[in-house]
Amino acid sequence: MSPEPVLLSYDLHGNGAPVIFLHGFPFNRHIWDDLIPYLSPYIQMILPDLRGFGHSPASEDVLSMELLAEDIYHLMDHLGLERAALVGHSMGGYVALAFAHLYSQRLTGLALVASHADPDPPARREARYFTVAQIRERGILPLLEDMPPRLTPNPTVQEKVRRFIQACSPQTAIYALLGMAERADANLWLREINVPVLIVTGSADPLIESARIQAMLEQIPVASWVELPGIGHMPMLEAPAALARALLGWVQQFQG
Ligand code: MLT
């Protein structure tokens, strides 16, 4: 039996076109907080904690990207939103792509921040299984040791990243790693996307290959790409004003 959807914990800020922000792994809704002053005068920002993260209910299952997308569909029902735009950071981008595939009729726009459509190559999948085994033995420590320097060159941002990692439960991290390892190839869905798409990357992000973004852009009917110079995997913490500027340009393409 497939897991039941849960009601996610969320924050609302501002008025205007509804835009739902999906955090990456292993973060929570507060990763977007630095954007609130820039964006809330223009849009309604909906900031959920994905299942198992922050204050949302714990998961009893592997966090597949489809399950996380279904939770967003139910959050929209709860908020009385027929349609909304999605911004997804990294793992949140994988969820946003699954949502675009499953529920395209409920989408007005799609923005991917430091994210992409590729499935895990075999070596990356094996690395995730290894990390899962380590977390079973040592709790969240392996993520604390490994992730911050890989995600950003900025020491202040690394410290913020550490605090987010400490707030993530080991069981949620395990379920999310397994869900990401098993995710589908979202490249197969790109041609179906019929809303404005924005891709934002950092030029110093070791997790994102520019050639792969170029290949994605060629598949998506209406897409633009903003690359932020010198920025790593965490543009919302490293360069919130520049990220907000890019997002506002994209919002203008679909707001009524
Ligand atoms: C994230 O930031 O959400 C993760 O690094 C994504 C991933 O591990 O593929």
Describe the structure.
This protein has 256 residues and is an alpha/beta fold. The chain has a domain at 10-119 and 184-251: Rossmann fold (3-Layer(aba) Sandwich), CATH 3.40.50.1820. Helices cover 43% and strands 16% of the residues. It has helices at residues 36-39, 65-79, 91-102, 122-138, 141-151, 155-166, 170-181, 210-219, 235-238, 240-251; strands at 10-13, 17-22, 43-48, 84-89, 107-113, 197-202, 223-228. The protein has a 7-stranded mixed sheet with strand order 1-3-2-4-5-6-7, with helices on both faces. Strand 4, helix 3 (91-102) and strand 5 form a beta-alpha-beta unit. It is globular, with a radius of gyration of 17 Å. The model has no long low-confidence stretch (mean pLDDT 96). The structure holds D-malate. D-malate is lined by residues 24-25, 90-91, 180.
